[in-house]
């Protein structure tokens, strides 16, 4: 839900970033943050529950791919 909030006009997140490059870097940083959080969750649950391990692995891979694609759209930040 928080990722979808970026596109909603009411919070003004898209309006705050005039430069598309800056917006891409901000969204990329957001995705990397959630990738790290998901990696911690995955590390904790990996030996306890197979279903959660499969779900978190899929989410982790998805977030890694989204992060890479977000940064490849605008180039890597300095």
UniProtKB/TrEMBL annotation:
Q: Which UniProt keywords apply?
A: Membrane, Transmembrane, Transmembrane helix
Membrane topology reported for the UniProt record: Multi-pass membrane protein
Q: Which is one Gene Ontology cellular component term of this protein?
A: plasma membrane
Q: Does the keyword Transmembrane helix apply?
A: yes
- Where do the TM regions start and end? 27-46, 53-73
Provide an example Pfam family for this protein: Gpr1_Fun34_YaaH
Keyword Transmembrane applies? yes
Enumerate the subcellular locations listed in this protein's record, separating them with semicolons.
Answer: Membrane
Q: Name one GO molecular function term.
A: acetate transmembrane transporter activity
- InterPro entries xrefs: AceTr, Gpr1/Fun34/SatP-like
PANTHER family per record: ACCUMULATION OF DYADS PROTEIN 2-RELATED (PTHR31123:SF1)
Family (UniProt): Belongs to the acetate uptake transporter (AceTr) (TC 2.A.96) family.
Which named protein is this? Uncharacterized protein
Q: Which organism is it from?
A: Lentinula detonsa
Q: What is the lineage of its organism?
A: Eukaryota, Fungi, Dikarya, Basidiomycota, Agaricomycotina
């Amino acid at each position: 839900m928080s990722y979808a909030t970026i596109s909603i006009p009411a919070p003004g997140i898209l309006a705050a970033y005039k430069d598309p490059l800056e917006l891409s870097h901000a969204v990329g940083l957001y995705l990397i943050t959630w990738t790290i959080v998901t990696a911690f969750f995955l590390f904790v649950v990996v030996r306890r529950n197979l279903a959660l391990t499969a779900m978190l692995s899929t989410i982790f891979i998805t977030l890694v791919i989204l992060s890479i694609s977000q940064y490849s759209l605008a180039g890597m930040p300095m």
